[in-house]
Amino acid sequence: MLETFSKKLMQPQNGLLDRKIFNDSEIYRMEQEQIFARCWLFLGHESMIANPYDFITGYMGEEPVLITRDGKGKLHTFLNMCTHRGNMICRAEKGNNQSFMCTYHGWTFSIDGKLVGVPGFKEVYFEELDKAKWGLVEVAQMDSYKGLMFATFDSRAPSLIDYLGDQKYELDLSVDRREGGAEVIGGVQRWVMKANWKFAVDNFGGDDGHHMITHGSVRPVVIDGKRWFNAYAEQKDPNNRMNMGGGWITEVDSSGKPLNEMGYMLGKYEQEHQKELRERMGGNPALNTMRGTFVGSIFPNMSFSSLRFNFRIWLPKGPDKTEVWHYCIVDKKAPPEIKSMIRLHLTETFGPSGNLEQDDMNNWQNSTFTAKGIVAQRQPMTILAGLGHDKEVPVTGTKLRAIYIRWAEMMNAASWDNVSINKSR
Ligand code: FES
Ligand SMILES: [Fe+2]
């Protein structure tokens, strides 16, 4: 169906990508239609709109949306667009409100999307305007997985649980660690980078090969506190293969002793709740390979890391521009000082001031920049690592190929019948 990328260059199953897919406006426009207008997209966590009449604004692909909890507690997602002449009906990031009045001509919508007020309804519209027809445009499906809210514009999309598949187990490692689940704290950090959204998604989703090189400059000044913590835990219990989370990066002195309290306190918190974590996560198949921590992406543009307690969405803003929205997520039951330490730890490592984040962005921006060249586009990009050995060693290349096989599948699929998703798990 899609002829915009070269069949010769674009063979993800053979480890080849058409470089054009990372910097081309026609392909970008197709992505909006084939991917963002159809797939389940991440909206945030329910704790961000915990009370009746709470709302947040966000984006699904490039479309601005308004996410609300109505007076009965039901969740809604609407296009953040007045049905009169298209002005955005809400400009705030978050709040609590029973209705939204458009600042252009004053049409007013209730929190559950109904058109409830039209200036001049009698004098100008002669009471003939059918208000029931002109409520806010609501998404086709909205659902939550353990507090994580998703929506899709496509009524034919499979259910959220089918769409998530086995990734639900990986999400559990972040959102179901303790009784009461998780909550987002500290608002949303946002920034823009001049990179194609897919570089970020594939980096979190499968580019294991970059750690030692890209983040090489961070390693000499800090150590991964998780190793220190795991070593401690395993010394006490050699069979302990389930250290949930706890990927703290801690500044150390020359003997490896942590210089501040953070690593120690967070390690202690993990240790204290090992029993509860073990019980909750006992049947989780993701633990066998991941030892309780996980970094991944949910197609198309959400990434998460139970290792660093964060979620993010990579919002497409053009073929070479992405806006990142980054959330800190913690156990709801954790004491306030631990939540605060997790937030500080996350700010140190990820987000616009994060030492690891900055390493990553620089590379993605350069890869996006070079992908624009006419001569460069004659050369395929390679994701060849482990090709032909996927079952023996599922290394970085295996995961990257899987991401781009799904991308090409969505770009080509006329309907969900042509997309390989197992139903009814
Ligand atoms: S555009 Fe909203 S009231 Fe006219
Ligand atoms: Fe990285």
Rg value: 23 Å
The CATH C-level name of the largest domain is: Alpha Beta
CATH topology label of the largest domain? Naphthalene 1,2-dioxygenase Alpha Subunit, Chain A, domain 1
Specify the number of helices.
12
Q: How does the SSE layout of this entry go?
A:
Blueprint: E1 16-17, H1 25-36, E2 41-45, E3 54-60, E4 63-69, E5 75-79, E6 94-96, E7 99-101, E8 108-110, E9 115-117, E10 141-145, E11 148-152, H2 160-164, H3 167-175, E12 182-193, H4 197-206, H5 211-214, E13 222-224, H6 225-236, E14 249-251, H7 261-272, H8 274-281, H9 286-290, E15 295-298, E16 302-305, E17 310-316, E18 322-331, H10 336-349, H11 355-370, E19 381-382, H12 396-412
Antiparallel strand pairs: 1-19, 2-11, 3-4, 3-6, 4-5, 7-8, 8-9, 10-11, 12-18, 13-14, 15-16, 16-17, 17-18
The chain binds FE2/S2 (inorganic) cluster and fe (ii) ion.
Can you give keywords for this protein?
single chain, 425 residues, alpha+beta, Rieske Iron-sulfur Protein, Naphthalene 1,2-dioxygenase Alpha Subunit, Chain A, domain 1, 3 domains, 5-stranded antiparallel beta sheet, 4-stranded antiparallel beta sheet, 12 helices, 19 strands, binds FE2/S2 (inorganic) cluster, binds fe (ii) ion
